[in-house]
């Protein structure tokens, strides 16, 4: 994984893009499926929108999903490219850092992605940096999760990252 930084500045760019209408928000109850132990959500770098299963956020796990998807949107805005499993890893780490920040004690043990993410999130939350050597267990958890079969089939696959079109 190339070195990437997920910070408030990246998330502020996403918030600004949403506020200006450059990134949309859609509600689709059909987006619900198991993903890392929470309600799923999506960010489309093609149509530049988030999709959430309902129009309200329940604390804290839905809020953490917004952080997760905002990381993907931030990488799209900045045109940051990497293998999709690493893109997901960064988003899961940010999601779990948020959960730590709001006082969630630990990850659900029956959720392999969150279980693999939690030690890395604790490291980041404590001021540390996730090195390449620490990523293989999280990558493997992502590749083996039923919702990410496509990433396991093509481990070098990247998400489309095109940024926003220039304003006319």
Number of domains: 1
Largest sheet: 3 strands, mixed
- Average pLDDT figure: 89
List how many beta strands DSSP finds: 3
What sequence of helices (H) and strands (E) makes up the elements?
HEEEHHHHH
- Overall structural class, as computed from helix and strand content, comes to mainly alpha
Rg, rounded, reads 15 Å
Strand content: 5-15%
Give the N-terminus to C-terminus distance in angstroms.
Answer: 35 Å
- Which assembly state applies to the chains in this document? single chain
Low-pLDDT parts are: 34-39
Give me the side-by-side strand order of the main sheet. Answer: 1-3-2
Number of alpha- plus pi-helical segments: 6
Helix content: 40-55%
Query: What's the overall geometry?
Result: globular
Question: Summary?
Answer:
With 168 residues, the protein is mainly α. Helices cover 45% and strands 7% of the residues. The protein has a three-stranded mixed beta sheet, covered by helices on one side.
